C-alpha cells in the first residue's frame, strides 16, 4: 500500500456520535414520531439526544463496557432509534435480534453474540420469555413500555423509562475508534447456524453518506421518512442513520405494518419516502386500489430484500405516480449494494423501456464496487449477457463473519465478498440478479432463472404470488416447478393456460416450468422473503413426467 | 480512543481511484467539455480514464515516484481534470499553483513544495518563464497545447499530448493508503510566506461525498456542472471530484471567465450548477441585465471565497430565479465549511426573512463540526448574538501546515482549527461571519464588523464595491473608513448621503464609518478577494477628525 507522503489532515474518527449530535444541533425541533395504536408519540431530535445520553448513563450503571453486545428485540419505534445511537455512541454494540426467527436460532444467536442485556418491547415479552432460561450471558432485561412493568417470567427486569428517568442525560460521549463495532446483525438466509456481521462505526458512517446521495435515496431535510423495513433487519437499510444525519422528520410505524396501517400513515403524516420489502408493498397496493387514500405526498419508495416484480413497479408508477426505487443489498453490506434509477439520457425512452430498466437491481452508489466472475474465477464483461457470480467490495462490506469457521468460503483470495447471487451487468453498469446460486435450476447443462420465471408469472392479473423451484429430474438433472397463489375466485385452469401463454412470449420452451401447482401461500422467511427451502422440502417427492 | 471489539468490515481505502473508475464504468459516454476560444473540446469519461492512465505511465517514465509533488500551472480544462485524477491515483501529489500570485511567492511555494515537474498551459508559459531559473527542484516542464510546442526559454520541455500518445493507458492503478497525500495547495491569505496544506485521499473522498449531498450542493448525474472557481484555488471547491463521482456533465470554461463568456456558456451548454467567487457573479449580473441571455437551465449557484452581498443574492433570485447557495470555506478545509440553504419549516417565511438567512454563511454539512470561542477559550452559545472565534474540525480539515513552524498558532490544544474568522451561530446552526479577526475595527472596547458595513453599503444601487478598513484613532483606538467604488456617472455627494441614510437604519451611530472615500477599484488578492492589506497601507497616514 503506497504512502510516499502523508497528508496533513486531522485524524478525525468516522463515528455515529457526530451524526447524532448534528441532528440535535441543526434540527433540534424536528420530530421523531411513532405510531402506537391510535396515538402518535412525538419526540424532538433535541429531546432524543438527551434520552440517548440518559440511556448511555443507564447502560454504564448496568455494567455495560466497551464492546459489550446489547440486544434489542423490538419494533420500529423512537426507543429503538435511541438504542441505535445511544448504545454505539457510548462504546458498546447494538445487536438487533430478528423477532421472526425460530426459537432455536434466536437462542443460538444470543448465546453466540454473548449479549449482556436485552431491550424488549412490552408487546414482545411473551415471545422472549420461553427463550430466557437458555440464554447464558444475558444479565438484565429492560422492558420498553409506556406504563407499569407487565407481569413476566423474565429475570432481572427493568423499566426502560425508569432507567432513563434516573439519569441526567448530560453524558460526556467518548472518543471512539472508527473501526470499533457499532452494531451487529446475523444473517439467516444460509444453511446451518446464522452468521454474524459486526458493522464498524466507519462502515455505517460511510454507508449513511452513500445512501443519502441524490442519485441513491436522495434523502434531504424536507423529507418525511418512514422506515417500514424492520429495524431488526439489516440495520433498517441505513434509513435510521441517514434520516437522522440529514434531519428528516422520522415516522416509525410501530408494531402494525399491514397495508391499511401504512396507507393511513402515508396519508396522515404526508410521508415523502418509505422503504421496505416487496411483499409489504403488494399488500399496500391492494389496499390503495380498494380504498380511498390520498398518498400524493409520496415521492420515492426504495424496495428491496427480494426482487420487486415489474408489474408492481408499473402499477405504483401508473396509478399513483410513485417511483419505486428497486434496490439490492445484503446483511453483509450494511446493507445497500445497488439502486435502480433512470439516468438523464434515458429520459426520453418509452415507458416500457424505462420499466425494464427499473426492474433491474441497478447501479452501485459511490462506495460499492462490483464484478461478475465465471466458475474459473475469470472476470466477465459488462455486456448485459454474461452471467456470473456477483462479487462486491467496499468500506461497508464485511470481510469476515463473527467467530465463524465458514467465513473463508465467502471471500475470494483478493478480498472480495462472494454474494452467492448470479447476475449480469450491462454496459452502463445496471446489475440484474439472475438468481441465487443455489436457487438456479440446472437443466441439461443450462441454467434457468427461477427469479425471471416468477416475475413473469406474477405479471398475470390473477396471480398473487409465485415461487419457482428446482425438482430433481432423471434425465435433465433438474426441472422447474411453479408454485402459484391465485386471487380469490380465480379459475385455476384458465390461470394456468394464461400463465403458459405469458411465459411462451418471453421464454424458450425448455425454460418453461414442467408444471404449475396452486398453493394457498408461499412460505416466507423471517424477513419476508420467499422460503424456497421449505417449498423444496414440501415437493421433495414430486414426480415430473418424463418429457422429451 | 475506545475499541472494545473491532468490526468485521473490509479494510477498504478511501482513495480517488474508485471515484475515477466509477465515472468510467457507469457514465462512460458522458462528456467533459472545455471551452477554447470558439470551440468546445469534448472528451468522454471513458476516454478521460484512458488518458489518466496514459498520464500515469508518462509520469512514471519521467521519474515521478510515490509522494512526489507534481505542479500544475493551468486554467480549468479537461487536461487539468486529468491531472486532478491521474497524478494522485498513481501515488503522487498534484500541487495546484495559483497563477495570480506574485513571482516571489510562486518561487517560494514551488521550492518549498519541491515540485519535481510542472504542467503548464501554453497560454501561461510567458508567466512561468521568468521564474524558472530560480526553481531548484523542477526537472521537467510539460506544456499543454493542441499544436506544436511553442518557443520557450523553459528547460526540459515536453508536449503533454506527445507524452500521452506514447503510452497505452492500460495502467495497473496501485493500492494507495487513504492517508497518503493526494493534492497540495498553499494558502496566501496570511502574512509572511504562504502555508501549504496536503489533502489526503481520505479527506478528499469524504469531502466529495459531503458536498454532493442533496442539502449541500445536491449534485446528481443529470447536472451539467461548470466549475468557474479556478482549479488552482482550493481544489476548485471539490467540484471536479464531486462532479465526476456522481457523473455530471462537466463544463470547463478554459481561460476566459468574463461575464459575457460565462453567460454564453450557461446558455449554450444548459448549465444547471455553477460555482465561483462573488466578484465573478457581480460581473455576470451586469452582463445578464444588459444583454439577452437565456439562463433558465441554471438552478443553483454555490458562491463563496468572500461574503456574497445580500443585494446580489436578491437580484439573482428575483430577476433570474436562481438560488445562490452562499457558502463559506477555507483552503485548510478541502475547502467547504458551511452552506446556506433554507430549511423546510422556513418555506413560508417572507422573502426578506429568507434573504436574511441566505445571506448568512449557513450550516455545516455532515463531516464538519464548528464552535465559537471567546478570548478566554470558553465556548459561546448558539444564540445568534454571541460573537467569537470560529473553530472547526472534521476529517477534511488540516491538522498542520506542511513544514511550517507557524502551525502551532493555528490549532487549539484539543485539536480544533482556528479559522481566524469571528462569527455568530444561531439556534438552528446558521453561522454568520462577522469579520476576519484581523479586519475587525476595535473601537472604544467594542468591535465593529467591516463585513456587515460593506454588505449594507453594497445594497446602495450606485455602489459597485465597498471595503471598510480600520484607521488608527487617538481616542477610540480604531475607527472605520469606507472605501467605495461607484458606477459611472453617479453623483458622489448624493451617494454618500444615501449610504449614510441606509446605514443609519441598521447601525448605531458609533458603528458608522467616520468617512467615505471614493476609489476607482478595491484592490484584490490573487483569488479575487478584497485585499485590505493594500488598502490599509494606502490609507496609513489618513487623518480622522476627532469626534466626541
Model description:
The structure is a homodimer of 548-residue chains. In chain A, strand 3 (69-73), helix 3 and strand 4 (93-96) form a beta-alpha-beta unit. Chain A is globular. The longest helix of chain A is centred in the first third of the chain and has 17 residues, at 45-61. Chain A has a domain at 439-538: ANL, C-terminal domain (GMP Synthetase, Chain A, domain 3, 2-Layer Sandwich), CATH 3.30.300.30. The first copy, chain A, has 15 helices and 24 strands. In chain A, the strands form six sheets. Chain A has a seven-stranded mixed sheet with strand order 7-6-5-3-4-8-9, with helices on both faces. Chain A is an alpha/beta fold and 548 residues long. Chain A has helices at residues 17-26, 45-61, 78-89, 103-113, 125-128, 160-165, 201-212, 239-246, 259-269, 278-290, 310-320, 351-358, 450-457, 492-506, 532-538, and strands spanning 31-36, 39-44, 69-73, 93-96, 117-121, 140-144, 157-159, 181-187, 195-200, 224-227, 249-252, 273-275, 300-303, 323-329, 336-340, 369-373, 388-393, 417-425, 431-436, 441-443, 446-448, 463-473, 477-486, 515-518. At the A-B interface, helix 1, strand 9 and helix 7 of A face helix 1, strand 9 and helix 7 of B.
